[in-house]
Design a protein that fits this description.
Blueprint (H helix, E strand, L loop, with lengths): L7 E7 L3 H13 L5 E4 L20 E5 H9 L3 H4 L3 E4 L1 E6 L5 E5 L13 E5 H13 L4 E3 L3 E8 L2 E7 L7 E10 L6 H5 L4 E17 L6 E7 L2 E11 L2 E11 H7 L4 H12 L6 E4 L3 E10 L3 E2 L2 E3 L5 E2 L7 H17 L11 H30 L3 H16 L1 H11 L5
Parallel strand pairs: 1-2, 1-11, 2-8, 5-13, 11-19
Antiparallel strand pairs: 3-7, 4-7, 5-6, 9-10, 10-11, 12-15, 12-16, 12-17, 13-14, 14-15, 17-20, 18-19
This protein binds flavin-adenine dinucleotide.
Flavin-adenine dinucleotide binds next to helix 1, strand 3, strand 9, strand 12 and helix 8.
Cofactor: FAD
Family: Belongs to the UbiH/COQ6 family.
Protein name: 2-octaprenyl-3-methyl-6-methoxy-1,4-benzoquinol hydroxylase
């Protein structure tokens, strides 16, 4: 554990998952004048992935081109690229209907990064990359350090944290408290922040597949009446072609599917997804995530900001959650770049209001997109069917519309 030798920092970040670690890296880059402490309740992920935080589990994350651009700005792309499979083509289809849409990086230069529409990285690889980079910065990383209580005080926030059960509490004061402790945040509840939640009554089944043929950098998004499915390209391992599966289905179907032996799971998957990605030969252990839309009613208060899943938890359709969070982190880091937190001064409400205003439109568009697309594609009704066929057709036939859609999904829209 890294010891706490400071009693007061400019910024304290609670949670060392994707959101907290990304913000810490951006603050180190854009705000080197600020002292920052990051507190994570678990030991940090290590290189052999035997230690994992919730963010860095067996999932894979589609990182949009705009986010790759950000990682490049942070000087992280070189460390990340070895673990990434480029997305060179995205194919969207609607099961049982003829219309589909295909996009290639070469046709979307304004929504691409280094010839890619995005890249896919396994979360277990992303964690060590972020935390190794963090270890090269001045950030004070406290782990394991569980924050047991936070109190907002006149000059910022006061945190009580401990290194584990039975360890005494240590106090830390901060000018700005960033809560990035994941969905269902007890800290937010303790601060009286209400979260609105819509349960989709769906689950995402996630696993790694071995496929017979090379995916050639194609990401597939397939809409079915039971929910969207995504097959994402992964880097080869031991010469084998691999893809990451996110299969959205009802809670009842998920309970059956996740218990099936591998060959039956593959047979059901192949039937539902079809053959566009070739023969599926293997499936790894299936993990299962409940899906909901959760939105905190307040994302900032005086000396306080919420980031990541505790601020907004989205449907994973089109892989937007982390990409949106990265843009939030960037917006906050840029806003704080000009802030003077010296001599115990705190972050003015005006600065945080400006940050909130700047992030509003992107959040509304991204959250609206991820909330409305799955029901539209799941509905068997004639109107919905017509609408999605028209939508896919319009996207397929209208380059400017497609460029706008891809640009927003790629994180370049705003
Ligand atoms: C199935 C699925 C697929 C997804 N795919 C994509 C994708 O392809 N692209 C994309 O952009 N997004 C994707 N997402 C979204 C992405 O996973 C989330 O945006 C991301 O996990 C958010 O991480 P977080 O850091 O906010 O929360 P968490 O991962 O929950 O991290 C919170 C951290 O805080 C720590 N913590 C909690 N309480 C305390 C405390 N009291 N003291 C100290 N530390 C504490 C925890 O240990 C944890 O490490 C997907 C999500 C799901 C469910």
């Amino acid at each position: 554990m890294t010891g706490a030798n400071k009693q007061r920092v400019d910024v304290a970040i609670v949670g060392g998952g994707m959101a907290g670690a990304s913000l810490a890296l951006m603050l180190a880059h854009f705000c080197p004048h600020l002292s920052v402490a990051l507190l994570e309740q678990r030991a940090l992920p290590d290189a052999d992935a035997s230690v994992r935080l919730p963010s860095f589990d067996t999932r894979a994350t589609a990182i949009a081109a705009g986010s790759l651009q950000l990682f490049s700005e942070l000087g992280l792309w070189n460390q990340l690229r070895d673990y990434c499979a480029p997305i060179e083509r995205i194919q969207v289809s609607d099961r049982g209907r003829p219309c589909g849409m295909s996009m290639r990086a070469a046709q979307q230069p304004r929504a691409s990064f280094a010839g890619m529409l995005g890249a896919v990285v396994e979360n277990a690889a992303l964690g060590p990359v972020l935390h190794r980079a963090l270890a090269q910065t001045q950030t004070q990383v406290l782990a394991p350090a569980r924050v047991n209580r936070v109190r907002m005080v006149a000059d910022g926030a006061q945190l009580d944290w401990s290194a584990g059960a039975g360890c005494p509490d240590t106090q830390l004061q901060a000018g700005l408290l960033v809560v990035a402790d994941g969905a269902d945040s007890p800290l937010c509840r303790g601060l009286g922040i209400v979260t609105e939640r819509i349960e989709y009554r769906q689950r995402a089944l996630v696993t790694t597949l071995g496929v017979q043929r090379d995916h050639r950098g194609t990401a597939y998004e397939r809409f079915t009446d039971a929910g969207p499915m995504a097959l994402l390209p992964l880097p080869r391992r031991d010469g084998s072609h691999r893809m990451a599966l996110v299969w959205t289905c009802s809670e009842e179907d998920a309970a059956i599917l996740r218990e099936l032996p591998e060959h039956e799971f593959i047979a059901r998957l192949q039937k539902r997804f079809g053959w566009r990605a070739g023969r599926i030969e293997r499936a790894g252990r299936v993990s299962d995530y409940p899906l909901s839309l959760s939105l905190a009613r307040e994302q900032w208060r005086r000396n306080l900001v919420l980031l990541g899943n505790c601020a907004h938890f989205l449907h994973p359709v089109a892989g937007q959650g982390f990409n949106l969070t990265l843009r939030d982190c960037y917006g906050l880091a840029r806003a704080l770049a000009g802030a003077d937190l010296a001599q115990n001064s705190t972050v003015g409400l005006e600065l945080l209001e400006a940050y909130g205003r700047d992030r509003r439109l992107d959040q509304q568009l991204t959250i609206g997109f991820s909330d409305r697309i799955p029901p539209l594609f799941a509905s068997p009704g004639l109107f919905a069917r017509g609408l999605r066929q028209a939508g896919l057709l319009a996207l397929a036939l209208t380059p400017p519309l497609r460029a706008g859609f891809v640009g927003q999904a790629a994180g370049f829209g705003l």
